[in-house]
Design brief:
One of its GO terms (molecular function) is ATP binding. The protein has 280 residues and is an alpha/beta fold. Helices cover 32% and strands 22% of the residues. It has one domain: P-loop containing nucleotide triphosphate hydrolases (Rossmann fold), CATH 3.40.50. It contains 9 helices and 10 strands. The protein binds adenosine-5'-triphosphate (ATP).
């Protein structure tokens, strides 16, 4: 997908107009949705992110992949103002995340395991609460909350406490809370984990419509197949550094994304496991 000016894009019917990112304050096309330079974070002696550079074009559906412990969650937490970096710069649509954190947070919707949900609220109350936190008026919040509960197949569970939700339902309501203020950038850490196939397909449609409407999505996932099908750009990171980045076709270079990932990251054992695990 090429950079797209939000106000030149035909609205996608999959996304209600009220949830499309607002075109009013659109920055110039050349401004990336997310620009990371020299990002670094260590936890004691463990360097989780090691001088990472990443540019996410506005209007892209961007996949972030890497092995366990590669630094994806740490990177996304720093990029969304949740975790302070040791070094480096992060800009969301031109706004320096760590100099103007309030403005940066208004531009972004985040789904992350690292964010505690107010799970003693019902699903409906939770989305409403997030909308009001973003300064939206009650009428708009109520309208969007209803639309989101429908889109996420949670209408009948809207009155249930989030603490009583299944893992997949919790993921979906957190996505609703991330979307309610119609952010310009959506950052989703493993959004499809625990989500059933029908809901996952509905969420994919919702996200594709959001991108068509001028939004940018960054999604971290361990499903190479999903990322290859869904994302127009991808970055592979390993040991806190960028190993490859570009359009999905550029990165996979004629092979599958999974093969390219294994080639770049390494670590295949080609072993059938210990003999004591074999029963015959
Ligand atoms: N709060 C923390 N304290 C100490 N070490 C941490 C902390 N958070 C992350 N790490 C370490 O930093 C490294 C990167 O972790 P991170 O969660 O960012 O990886 P990831 O790519 O998201 O992994 P996964 O795919 O398994 O979710 C790991 O070695 C992890 O153990």
């Amino acid at each position: 997908m090429t950079d797209a000016a939000p106000d030149s894009v035909v609205p996608d019917p999959a996304v209600p107009e009220t949830l499309a990112p607002s075109p009013g304050s659109a920055p110039p096309i050349a401004v990336p949705a997310l620009e990371i330079r020299g990002l670094r974070k260590a936890f004691g002696a463990k360097v989780a992110v090691d001088g990472l550079d990443l540019t996410v074009p506005t209007g892209s559906f961007y996949g972030l992949v890497g092995p366990n412990g590669a630094g994806k969650t740490t990177t996304l937490s720093m990029a969304t103002g949740l975790l302070r970096p040791d070094a480096g710069t992060i800009h969301i649509l031109g706004t320096d995340v760590w100099r103007d954190t309030v403005k940066a947070k208004s531009l972004v919707g985040v789904l992350s395991d690292g964010i505690a949900l107010f799970d003693r609220l019902t699903g409906e109350q939770l989305i409403t609460y997030h909308g009001l936190l973003h300064g939206m008026d009650r009428e708009t919040v109520a309208q969007r909350t209803g639309e989101l509960l429908d889109l996420l197949d949670l209408r009948s569970a809207g009155g249930t406490l989030v603490v009583d939700y299944s893992a997949g339902m919790t993921k979906k309501i957190a996505l609703g809370a991330a979307l309610v203020h119609a952010p310009r950038l959506l950052v989703l850490d493993e959004p499809f984990e625990s989500v059933d196939p029908v809901s996952a397909a509905n969420i994919r449609d919702l996200l594709a419509g959001y991108v068509h409407g001028g939004g940018t999505v960054i999604v971290s996932s361990h499903s190479m197949d999903l990322v290859q099908r869904m994302c127009d750009h991808v970055a592979i990171i390993g040991s806190g550094r960028q190993l490859a980045a570009g359009t999905t076709d550029e990165v996979r270079a004629g092979s599958t994304l999974e093969d390219r990932f294994v080639e770049l990251v390494g670590g295949r054992h080609h072993s059938e496991g210990p003999s004591w695990l074999r029963t015959s």
